[in-house]
Amino acid sequence: MTTPLFHSIFRYIRSGKFCRLPALLLLCAGVCIVLTFSLAKQPAWALDKINAEVPEARTVIRGSGLPVPRFVSLKSNVVNMRVGPGHEYPLQWVYVRKNLPLKVISEFDVWRKVVDHEGVTGWVHGQLVSLKRFGVITSSNAKLRADPDAQAAVTAVAEAGVLMEVQYCQGTWCRLSSDIARGWLERSRFWGVLPGETLN
């Protein structure tokens, strides 16, 4: 029998208000275990596995041949992040938000070391990410404009955490789009492009 806590967790997931769950918490919720514990109460061996140190890889080792760093996005609503480049490494986080942008900072074979907009770093399999570009709004009341000009008409206002497709960038502005809005936004108001990067 599931618990009220179980239901509240998954209502929050569906709301899109956050992007990832601690791996142990999601595992326990998924099998309907009563979630009355915290990570602080886990046995020492469990915490040691999650926090295990992984030797740093060089920038690219038998990688994809694509530029590093670069931005990618999650292909699905459930993507595992691990502490190292392989299925034998423990889960660190489980992302629950399709199209979330991640920055690839290193590669090892088919694995990508990535960092998200909150600075969380780990490894994901290359097949779980896409080259399709998305950005996550990082400031509240971000005003999208009709043209790349601070005086241009406002076409929409986006809240922090909203995901939008990055269509192209020029100078300090990028054109973003979603199902319900589109317009130009200053790079400083969202996360998902490299400094000085030009997208056509």
Task: Give a summary of the structure in a few sentences.
The chain has helices at 4-15, 23-30, 44-50; strands at 20-22, 60-61, 70-74, 79-82, 91-95, 101-108, 111-115, 121-125, 129-130, 134-137, 142-145, 154-158, 163-170, 173-177, 182-186, 190-191.
Task: Provide an overview of this structure.
It is a single chain. The protein is mainly beta and 200 residues long. It has two domains: 129 residues, SH3 Domains (SH3 type barrels, Roll), CATH 2.30.30.40; 57 residues, SH3 type barrels, CATH 2.30.30.40. It contains three helices and 16 strands. Strands 2, 3, 6, 7, 8 and 9 form a six-stranded mixed sheet that branches. Strands 15-14-13-10-16 form a five-stranded antiparallel sheet, with no helix packed on it. Strands 1-5-4 form a three-stranded antiparallel sheet. It is globular, with a radius of gyration of 19 Å.
Task: Tag the structure with descriptive keywords.
200 residues; mainly beta; SH3 type barrels; six-stranded mixed β-sheet; five-stranded antiparallel β-sheet; disordered N terminus
CATH superfamily name of the largest domain? SH3 Domains
Q: Helix count, per DSSP?
A: 3
N-to-C CA distance: 52 Å
**Helical content, roughly?**
10-25%
Q: Which range does the strand content fall in? A: 35-45%
